[in-house]
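Components:
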Amino acid sequence: MIGSGAISSIAIALMKAKWRQTMVAAMGVMFGITMFVTLLSFMTGLNKMLDGLILNRTPHIRIYNEMKATIKQPIIRARVTETHFIHSIRPKSSFTNLRNSGAILRNLDNDKRVLAVTPRVSSQVFYSIGRTNFGGSLQGVDVLKEDKYFHLNDYITRGNLRDLVSVPNSIIIGKGIADLLLVDVGDQLDVKMPDGRVRSMKIVGFFQSGIKDIDKVLSYTSYKSLQTLMDVPSDHFTEIYVNLHDRSIAPAMALELADMFDTDTEDIVRANAQFETGTKIRSIISYSVGITLLIVAGFGIYNILNMLIYEKMDTIAILKAMGYSGSDVKRIFSIISVSIGLVEVLQV
Amino acid sequence: MSRILEVKGLSKTFIESDNMQVLYDVDMHVDKAEFVSIVGKSGCGKSTLLYILSTMDTMYEGEIILDGEKLSHRTQTELARIRNEKIGFVFQFHYLLNEFTALENVMLPAIKLNKFSKQEIENQAIERLKILDMHKEAHKKPNQLSGGQKQRVAIARALINSPKIIMADEPTGNLDQVNSEIVFGIFLELSTKFDQSLLVVTHDLEFASRTHRIIQMVDGRIV
Ligand SMILES: Nc1ncnc2c1ncn2[C@@H]1O[C@H](COP(=O)(O)OP(=O)(O)O)[C@@H](O)[C@H]1O
Ligand SMILES: [Mg+2]
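Structure:
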């Protein structure tokens, strides 16, 4: 067996003579891999951003009470022998609060599958300043939890979500509302409740969800402020947001909770079915484009190496005529290939 | 006299091209210090014969004995070793590696032989180049040398491992009269002064007539 020092010095000498081609081959590999990585990071980033746009703000399970007609219609209670005509039964109450919110919250707090629970209360309101006023919706949230688990602060373009805690009677309004009412952070805004009571609130920030129709109607305040404003007890909540450790069990658990608490539930998978499909399709596209790119780059490299070796057919014949064995020649060309690989790794 | 090379009943058929038979039952031999030439028309099978004798082609029938060793049924690695130790080959075209200097080209077979230190190999290479009066050109690359000079470097390379036999396929076929004369002179000197065995294919009859023995080939047969 001949020393590997001799073999590698021969390989280096052969490579030096074809330095440019060696570099091109290495650059080809580098380009292919760089493009692949870039494309995948871009697509992953895009997916994450879109996920963030919708999924971050969507709870895994939402517990609420749909305003709907009573299921036990009075006709059921009537005697069968007589004929009754009853129709258009109206909903019982205008409030859609969760009746046993305290129990639900306590129960979920102790559930091992649950990462976070946060209640919300919401109400229709009128925003008014001077003589202008228009309808919208005010949400009372658990400020600290909402920020931690639903990244609400990401969408606050001015001010800070935490100001809702430190400043009493404060409100963060949608950018659209601010534009319509020509108000700025620090201004007072009159909020009128459906029952006619008015409360002046201090604007501590703007938020921009990226969805204009939402930004034109929605505002946030702390749930305590809103409960006071609505004159309801402190366990009056309209929704409970639940985030789980494992998102995939959301559909099953949503059904379970609906059954257990006799409420309506919605899970993230059902709420965003079309969105999941979009994510999947984007992944498929990015991977197929990426793999195509790699294959194309791979063929390029294979071609260049082939050319390198084809050009070296004479060299191989001469080396063999001098008594170098097939395995010596293979080692020489392996060293060349590995060197190209190494150069490429260094470049990346 | 001792036989360096003995060939018995050698036949060669190119199976991949219509089973064309190129060599028919060739018997021949080369003795120690003997200078043998092979002559014959173009296409009669001289190169094919030399290629087989140099162990580069193993698809043949018959028996070849080189320096007492049978060449049939050997692995490629063994054949490479035999080629490296015992055979010096000179082609019609010089076939030097352009990536290496003349000196490095001469050293390559000795590096493969791996018997001497790098310094010893270099000294031996310079010695061989001196025999061919090429030592002043030792550090030039092949593309800085003339055709005759390249062929002399190629002969120095064939000599480096002190082979049992030097085989050459039309070594002067690509050279002018003056350079052919020089190369031929070197071959004669090698056989008389250094007892080197030589087997040289040529189409130059004048050249052949000055060798010890002529082998005449016609259509794959020796006559
Ligand atoms: N690799 C090959 N495959 C098929 N036929 C070949 C091959 N090499 C040589 N031949 C044929 O073998 C015959 C002898 O060729 P060659 O030995 O090169 O002749 P010479 O060297 O005497 O001119 C020619 O007819 C040639 O066409
Ligand atoms: Mg020929």
